[in-house]
Amino acid sequence: MKTSFQxxxxxxxxxxxxxxxLLILPFFAWSFAATPSPFGFSDQEVPFRYxxxxxxxxxxxxxxxxxxxxxxxxxxxxxxxxxSITLFLFGGVSSLEEIPxxxxxxxxxALAGPGVSFSIALILIIIDLFFKPPGESFVDYFFLNPINDxxxxxxxxxxxxxxxxxxxxxxxxxxxxxxxxxRAWLAQxxxxxxxxxxAAGIGKMFAIFMGIFGLFYNFWFILIAFFIYIGASEEExxxxxxxxxxxxxxxxxxxxxxxxVTSGMSIEELVEYIFRFKHMGYPVVDDGQLKxxxxxxxxxxxxxEERKAVKVSQVMTKNIISLQEDDDAVNALKLMSLNNxxxxxxxxxxxxxxxxxxxxxxxxxxxxx
Length: 369
Prior knowledge:
The protein folds into two domains: about 5-245, no CATH class; about 250-369, CBS-domain (Roll).
């Protein structure tokens, strides 16, 4: 099932909406419509209150997107490729090919998002100041007296939300920006893996306390705590795996005996081949030329009664993803995760020399651990 939809591209980065975003957007709009001033529009007439509330909800997630673009801009500036930005239930996530190992670069990236949020808040506050009644103090106008004009109230709400967004993301817990700031600071004083473990541990402890708080006060805190705990655990594990595989070459872990099939083989024959050799994927080679790769997943798409007539050439994947023998094993893991595949063909020059699977990588990770 497709869980996200691409809206377009900004700075060459695909912008996606997760289905959870589509669920939460109407909820936020309804919440703003039902809430009185200053954080809502329940005092406005229908349907104007719902128009304002929807505008506030959309503005909130536009600000989240700008927050993520702040991270992405700094990342791209330092040579890190951004695969996509996805807006989820709890905000946005930038999918980076690799977190920079340099603490100073990671620090800049981590602070860029909150920096954008605080900048948006400052600009909106300045806009609101132009309409402040003469003689009224800043504190009275912004915090004590209600803002009657609905448009100015909308601007005020978005400015406050951006301040809260910036502060929330500076919490020193993965996967919040503050967790990365903490790791960048610790990495200048200890090894990168130890810094990650320390920052992840703090993030988990924070999540536990937030979850306990949520049990007594608000269920949303439990959901956020769960999100933080899982994010901290995944960041810790991902960093450990990348460090474990550092220096390991694909040629050291690949399977050198590569079983191949031809494009003219029927799917029925391929099934028998799989039972014989027990592999779940095979390079397709005709006259010494690599034509594609066929997997058990491709076979499942063909009805049993048609497997005798359908050829491998009709179901194989022609977009071949391959690596060279001397490439790092961690590159194979990244490509598998990025393309959602279980194996990669290994070449020496233009000639097939082996195949590496996700099982091969997991086995070497277990041994090296």
